[in-house]
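> example.struct
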C-alpha cells in the first residue's frame, strides 16, 4: 500500500520497500498516473516515489528554482539525502536534468524519456527547414486545443508531441537553466514514431559514448512507457542491473 507525505505543499506517494529509490517525474499533460505500469513493475524491488506536480496544470506558475528545490526536498524526505534514480518524461526531463545539475550529490542515475539534454538554441539550430515548419504547425495545433485538458490531451495523442515545444520555440532559454553536462550514468529512451525527435544527434552520441550509459529507440510514439510498458520496463530493469 502506498505511503503519502507532504513536501512543500505537494502530496508525494511512495510505493515499495526496496533500498534504492526511483523518483518518477511526469510531464504535461499527465499526472503521476503516467507511471502506473512502472510502479507495478518496480515496487517489488525499489521504492517508487512520484507526485502530480501542480505546475503541469498551471503553466509558468513555478520558477526553475522552486521546482528543483521541491525535487531536492523530496529526496531529503524519502531517502534522507541518499542519491536516487531519476525517471523522467517530457517536461519532467527539462526540470529533472536541471535538478540533477544543481544537486548532483542527490542523483545516482538518470532515465530520460523523449526529451534530450540539448539547450533550446542548440536544438533549434540542429533542425532543417522542413522540421521547423512541422514544429510551427504542431505548435498552432496544440495552442488551438488548450481550451480544456481533455482537448489538449487528445491533440497531443494525435500529433504525438509533448507540450515542451513551447519551451523549444521560446525566444530565450529557461531562466536560470544550467548548460547540460552528463555527470551520471544515463539511459535515454525515445519513440521513433513521431514527426521529429526532441534531442540532437550530438546529444545521443554523447550519451552513447559514456560508460554505463545507453540510448534505446522504440518503435512507438512519444509516451513509450504507456505505449509499450512491458518492453520499456524490461529495458530499464536490464540497464539498472548492469549500470
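> example.seq
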Amino acid at each position: 500500500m502506498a505511503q503519502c507525505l507532504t513536501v512543500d505543499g505537494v502530496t508525494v506517494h511512495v510505493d515499495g520497500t526496496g533500498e534504492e529509490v526511483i523518483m518518477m517525474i511526469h510531464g504535461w499533460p499527465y499526472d503521476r498516473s503516467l507511471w502506473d505500469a512502472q510502479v507495478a513493475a518496480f515496487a517489488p524491488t525499489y521504492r517508487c516515489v512520484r507526485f502530480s506536480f501542480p505546475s503541469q496544470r498551471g503553466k509558468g506558475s513555478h520558477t526553475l528554482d522552486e521546482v528543483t528545490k521541491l525535487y531536492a526536498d523530496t529526496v531529503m524526505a524519502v531517502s534522507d539525502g541518499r542519491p536516487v534514480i531519476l525517471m523522467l518524461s517530457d517536461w519532467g526531463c527539462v526540470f529533472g536534468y536541471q535538478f540533477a545539475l544543481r544537486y548532483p550529490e542527490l542523483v545516482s542515475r538518470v532515465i530520460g524519456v523523449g526529451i534530450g539534454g540539448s539547450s533550446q538554441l542548440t536544438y533549434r539550430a540542429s533542425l532543417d527547414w522542413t522540421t521547423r515548419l512541422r514544429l510551427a504547425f504542431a505548435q498552432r495545433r496544440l495552442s488551438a486545443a488548450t481550451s480544456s485538458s481533455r482537448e489538449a490531451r487528445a491533440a497531443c495523442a494525435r500529433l504525438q508531441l509533448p507540450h515542451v515545444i513551447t519551451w523549444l520555440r521560446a525566444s530565450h532559454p529557461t531562466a536560470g537553466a544550467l548548460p547540460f553536462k552528463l555527470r551520471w550514468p544515463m539511459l535515454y529512451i525515445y519513440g521513433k514514431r513521431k514527426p521529429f525527435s526532441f534531442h540532437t544527434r550530438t546529444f545521443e552520441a554523447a550519451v552513447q559514448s559514456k560508460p554505463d550509459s545507453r540510448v534505446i529507440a522504440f518503435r512507438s510514439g512519444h509516451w513509450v512507457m504507456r505505449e509499450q510498458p512491458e518492453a520499456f520496463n524490461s529495458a530499464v530493469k536490464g540497464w539498472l542491473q548492469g549500470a
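> remarks
Residues 64-79 form the longest helix (16 residues).
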